[in-house]
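ok so i was messing around last nite and threw this chain in just to see what happens. nothing serious, just curious
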Amino acid sequence: MARILRGDIVWADLNPVKGREQAGQRPVLILSPEIFNERSGTVIAMALTSQPQRAGFPLAMEITSVALPKPTWVKISQIRTLSVERLGKRIGRVSDDEMGQIVEGLNEIIGEQSAAGYRR
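result:
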């Protein structure tokens, strides 16, 4: 398999799923760095969707730096570790700027600052 890089958008088979997980053959955005992907045989990825999202940033963000056939949103809250065996063809690659914004959104969801807001 070709090198899998952070920021790549690739097709993935997300089945089987449970509950509200994203299902089926769909594009995913690779979050994990190349060395992790090579050595672990897995990738950490976020699901993409072409369905307009009501939830705004930080839960979803429109991808604009890649020429995709439809408007596309990354579902920042839909993170999965996938075997590289689930991955297919590379579709494109997000810009460094967009990747930074996506990581910022993830930090808002799971980072220390937002975690304090959820404590009771």
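not much to say yet. The longest helix spans residues 96-110.
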